[in-house]
Amino acid sequence: MLSYILRRLAVLPVILLAVSLVIFAILRLAPGDPALSYLRLSQIPPTTENLAIARENLGLDKPLSDQYATWLAKAARLDFGRSYVTGRPVMDEILYYLPATLELAGASLLITLGLSVPMGVAAALRRDTALDHLTRAVAFAGVSIPNFWFGFLLVWLFSVELGWLPPLGRGGLSHLVMPAISLALMSLAVNTRLIRASMLETMHHRFILYARARGVSEGTVVWRHMFVNALIPILTATGMHVGELLGGAVVVESVFSWPGVGRYAVSSIYNRDFPVLQCFMLVMTVIFVVCNLAVDIAYAVADPRMRLGGQGGRA
Amino acid sequence: MIRTLFAKKLTVLALVLAAVLVAMAVFAPLLATTDPDRTDIGRKLEPPSLSEPLGTDHLGRSIYSRLVYGARASLGSVAVIVTAILVLSFVVGGASGYLGGTADAVIMRLCDVILTFPTFILALFLIGILGTGLTNVIIAIVMTHWAWYARMVRGMVLQLRNREHVLAAKVAGTPALLLGARHILPPVAAQMAVLASLDIGHMMLHVSGLSFLGLGVQPPTPEWGVMIGDARQFLRTAPQLMFFPGLMIFLSVMAANILGDALRDRLDPHLVSELDHGH
Least CB-CB distance to A144: which of B118, B228, B257? Predict the structure, then answer.
C-alpha cells in the first residue's frame, strides 16, 4: 500500500514538469511581440529604445531554452512576475482570490456528493417507480441546462421575485447557496446517473444473492456490499468533477459577481495580462492534478485490485 | 416494453427538435421577421406582442429574429468543432496505432499531458493567449478535446489490427491503404460518431458559456450565450430577455444528449459503454 502511494507521488514532479512545458509553449503562441504589449499595458511609449530595454528585462533576447529555464526556476520559487495591470506579484493576487473559489467549488462538491448518493441509490433500489423516473428526469435536465442560465433563473426567482436571497457577492451562507447549486448542477446530475447505473450493475452479482442468503440485513447489503462496490466509478468521476467545478466556477463566478479567481482570470483575458493568466492556469492545474492523485490513492484503498496495475480513468 | 416505447418516443421527439433547430440555422433569413441586427431605440424592451412574438431587447432588436439567427453561431460552431476533432483524432490516433514504436509512444505521451489539464481551464488559457473571438474559441475547444479522441481511435485500431478478418485480408495481400479504408476505418468511424454525439451537448455548453463571458462570439452577432450576457442587466425589468435564449441552449443540448444516448444504445452498446466509462 505504502509503496503504491510512494510510487504515485514519485510521478508527480514529472507530471508537473510536463505541465509547465505545455504552459510555457502556449505562452509563446501569443500573437504579437510580448515586449510591445508589455509597454502598451504599462503605458510606456513603444520607442525602439524602450522596446530593447523591455526585451532585455523580460529575457526575450535569450534563446527559448534559456527562457524556459529561467521561467521554470522562477516558477519553482512561486515567482510568476507582476501583473501588467496592477504591478503587484501575480501569485499574491491569485492567492488573494483563491479562497473564494475554493469555498464555492468545495460547497458544490459537498452538494454533489451529499445529494447524488441518496438520489442515485434510492433510484436504483426503486427502479422503474415514480421516484426513479423523477430522479432520472432531473438528472437528464441537469446535464443539459447551461449553469449560467440556471444561475440567472435562481436569481430571478429567489432574489427578484421572492426576495429571499442576495443576488450577488460573497458573504454568509445565504450568498453561497445559489452559486453553489448552479455550479453543482452538472456534476450532481452526472454523478446521480452514474451511481444509479453502477448500483444496478452490482445488484445482480452473486455475492449480493449470497449475502442475502446468509441473512445479512438489507441495510448492510445495500451499503456494505452494493455501495462499496459501486464506489469505484464514483471515485473516478469525482476526480473529473473537480476539473469541471474549477472550470465551471469561472462562469458561475461571473453570474453572481463572486470575487473568486475565475472572475479575475476572465478580466485578465480582457486585459491581456499574461502573467496573471499563466499563474491561474498553473495553480488550477496543480489543484486538479493533486485531487486526481488523491482519488487514485483512495481508489487503491477502496479496491485492492487497482494497486497492481495502478490504472486510473480519464484524468 | 413501456420503457422502450417511451425511449423511442423521446428519441423521435429529440429528432424532430434537432431537425427544427438545424432548419432554423439553415433557413434563418426566411424564418426571421426582421434583420436581427436592426436597432430601434424607440421600441426597446417591449414585452411580447403580435408584431414581436417574443418582444424586443434593450436596443429594440427583435428577440425572435435574433434567436433564429443565433442557431447559426451555436450549431455551426459545434459542427466545425466536432468535424475538426474527428479528422484530427483519426489522423493522429490512426497514425499512432498504425506506426507503433517511438511515434506511438511520443503521441500517446503528448495526449496524456493534454489530458492532465482541466479541460475548460486549458481552453480558457488558450483563448487568453490567442485572443477572444469565435475562431479562437473553436481552436481552443478542438485543441483541448482531440487528445481523448485520438487515444480512443488508437485503441480501436490496435484492437482491430489483430482481428482475424483483418489478418486474413492482410495475408491475402491487400495493400495497406485499402486495408485501412475497408476494414479499419468503417468500424472505427461508427464508434467515433457515437462518442462524438455523446459529447456534442457538452461542447455546446462550453461554447455558449465562453460566449456568455464575452470571450467567444462578439456582439452584435446574435448568439444565445451572448444574448443571456446582454440580458443580465435587465433581470429585474425584463426577465423575458434571458428566458428565451437559455431555453434554446437547453433544448439544443437536451436534443443532442437524447440522440447521443439513443445512438449509443443502437450501435454496439457493449463496446461503446465500455469505452465511454469515466468519460
Answer: B257
With vertex at residue B96, the alpha carbon angle to CA B94 and CA B99, rounded to the nearest 5 degrees, is: 100
- In B134-153, the residues whose Cβ lies within 8 Å of chain A are 148
Check B278 against A251: CB less than 8 A apart: no
Quote the CA–CA distance of B122 and B128 in Å, as a whole number. 10
Q: Is B278 on the interface with A (CB under 8 A)?
A: yes
pLDDT higher than 90, residue B159: no
Distance from C-alpha of B107 to C-alpha of A31, rounded to nearest angstrom: 26
Residue B271 has pLDDT above 70, yes or no: no
Q: What is the ipTM of this complex?
A: 0.86
B232 chain-A contacts, CB cut-off 8 A: 152, 255
Q: What is the pLDDT of residue A314?
A: 36
Complete DSSP assignment for A48-72: HHHHHHHHHHHTTTS-HHHHHHHHH
User: pLDDT per residue over A91-136, tens digit each?
Assistant: 999 999 999 999 999 999 999 999 998 898 889 888 888 888 888 8
pLDDT, one tens digit per residue, over A287-304 is: 999 998 888 888 777 766
